[in-house]
Design brief:
Elements: H1 4-8, E1 13-21, E2 29-34, E3 56-57, H2 60-72, E4 78-82, H3 90-103, E5 108-112, H4 117-120, H5 124-127, E6 135-138, E7 159-162, H6 163-169
Helix pairs in contact: 2-3
The structure holds iron/sulfur cluster.
């Protein structure tokens, strides 16, 4: 476990945003690709997101634009944080999720991480984030387990976790989502 000062030194940056996205979660939504990932999975398709100094500065103005998109496009009911790894920059992710959920409480929040849930579930810095999540897709991309038939994930070790039920029952409960939309 890293101390908070490590996370305080990670810049707030992002790699991209997809509006009207249908690939990174169920239904229509907006996906924010956070910059920085420490996992370095073999054959990762987002190598450009690894550096904490790449991408673009994430500002208050961009956050307001995301909120504005959701308020004006009520068919978009999902906000996905992907990367990079949003949990590698927990202070930024915490700030974004809280602000978006407060402004748009109807949204479903999805988050992709390369960490395995059981390895981080008791870390205080993540305990502030988990209650905001509806779905957590966890685990690194493992190239030898690559399976293009899987919905919403790249390799079969990755799980689609129902976070509300998991927190209620205090053990991992996965979802069986075979249809993308
Ligand atoms: S967790 Fe995702 S972004 Fe990070 S190295 Fe693995 S596949 Fe790439």
């Amino acid at each position: 476990m890293k101390d908070t000062s490590f996370y305080e030194n990670i810049p707030y940056r992002y790699a991209g945003i997809i509006k009207d996205d249908v690939n990174n979660g169920k239904g229509i939504g907006l996906t924010l690709f956070v910059q920085y990932c420490p996992h370095r999975c073999r054959n990762c398709q987002n190598v450009h997101t690894w550096s904490m100094y790449g991408g673009f500065i994430f500002t208050e103005e961009i956050l307001e634009k995301i909120i504005d998109y959701f308020k004006k496009h009520r068919y978009a009911k999902r906000f996905t944080l992907s990367g990079g790894d949003p949990l590698a920059n927990p202070l930024m992710t915490n700030w974004i999720i809280k602000r978006v959920k407060k402004a748009c409480p109807w949204l479903h929040i999805w988050l992709y991480t390369g960490y395995v849930y059981e390895d981080i579930q008791n870390e205080k810095i993540y305990k502030n984030i988990f209650p905001y999540l509806d779905v957590l897709i966890d685990g690194p991309y493992e190239d030898e387990l690559r399976d293009i038939t899987l919905a919403f994930r790249g390799s079969s070790n990755q799980r689609i976790i129902d976070m509300k039920k998991t927190l209620e029952e205090n053990h991992v409960i996965t979802m069986n989502l075979e249809e993308k939309v």
